[in-house]
Amino acid sequence: MSVRDPHRFSHELDDATTERLINRLESRANDVVFTRLFDQYANQIDFPESGRTLEIGCGTGAMIRSLVRKNNFSGEVVGVDQSAAFIEAAKGFAAEEGADEYIEFQVCDVHELDFEDDSFDVAIAHTLISHVTDPELVVKELARVLRKEGTLVIFDGDYASLTYALPDHELGRRMDHALATASFNNPLIMRDLIRMLPGVGLQVTNTLADVVSEVGSCSYFRSFAETYAPFVVSAGLMSEQEVEGWFSMLEQSIKDNTFFASCNYYTYIIKST
Ligand SMILES: C[S@@+](CC[C@H](N)C(=O)[O-])C[C@H]1O[C@@H](n2cnc3c(N)ncnc32)[C@H](O)[C@@H]1O
């Protein structure tokens, strides 16, 4: 057994796991607990008229569909992801919404983008950078494909802060760490990014910091737990019995309305120089 961030290996998953992740990406995209953070930065982006936007690691295209519905959006958008199954789903969802006219999807590894230098006015990495094999290489690729003065947004969690509160504090602490380790190849990347950007010609113009938290009732964190707790067991970080025990306490806190979970998220708004 070994730790395998499922999104890092999304192109190698079995059908059932792929389906579980597709459902999670779509349910998350409909959860206001989370979508407000996308809206917060996307509403501020100055999209040039007829400009080109890129989302790397677009998954099922949920953020792209949300983007093209916005009043400030202009131009066309390309979404890339390494998972052919996610891209297939993304094409289907976009067609269902009639949004496919403005969107192109492509299967590609974000460490080696299949685009010319200076191809895009705007690039977005929404909960991608915590999963990739080599974040520094991905940032370099983004700097390469962005036009001078182009805008880059990198959004992700700082997963040292991911926490579910349980009456058993020790079990809770171990599970928090195991969940972050099993689910994210780079759980602390949002702390490292600030040192990585200047060296590749990217200048941070603003940062946003947010706490996503649910106290009492929950939706976002329940879906997160259901999706990712099985990976803690398959990675051998905790036993099935321990994770089941953790789950029962969580279920009890949901029934009692004593649920508590939280995680910090950061947005870097960046200019290409
Ligand atoms: C948490 S999902 C985010 C999806 C989408 N941005 C959203 O917010 O709904 C992370 C995505 O990154 C993709 N991914 C991870 N590593 C990748 C790589 N090296 N190349 C391309 N896509 C990658 C996964 O397939 C997955 O779709």
Structure description:
This protein starts with 14 loop residues before the first helix and ends with a strand. The protein has a 7-stranded mixed beta sheet with strand order 3-2-1-4-5-7-6, with helices on both faces. It is of the alpha/beta class and 273 residues long. Helix content is 41%, strand content 26%. It has a domain at 10-157 and 184-211 and 265-272: Rossmann fold, CATH 3.40.50.150. Helix 1 packs antiparallel against helix 8. It contains 9 helices and 7 strands, in the order H-H-E-H-E-H-E-E-H-E-H-H-E-H-H-E. Strand 1 (52-56), helix 3 (62-68) and strand 2 form a beta-alpha-beta unit. S-adenosylmethionine binds next to helix 1 and helix 3.
Q: Helices and strands: which structural class?
A: alpha/beta
Order of strands across the widest beta sheet? 3-2-1-4-5-7-6
Low-pLDDT residue spans = none
Strand content: 25-35%
- CATH H-level name of the domain at 10-157 and 184-211 and 265-272... which superfamily? Vaccinia Virus protein VP39
Largest sheet: 7 strands, mixed
Rg calc: 19 Å
The CATH topology of the domain at 10-157 and 184-211 and 265-272 turns out to be Rossmann fold
β-strand number: 7
The amount of helix comes to: 40-55%
Distance between the termini: 44 Å
Helical stretch tally:
9
Descriptors for this entry?
single chain, 273 residues, alpha/beta, Rossmann fold, 7-stranded mixed sheet, binds S-adenosylmethionine
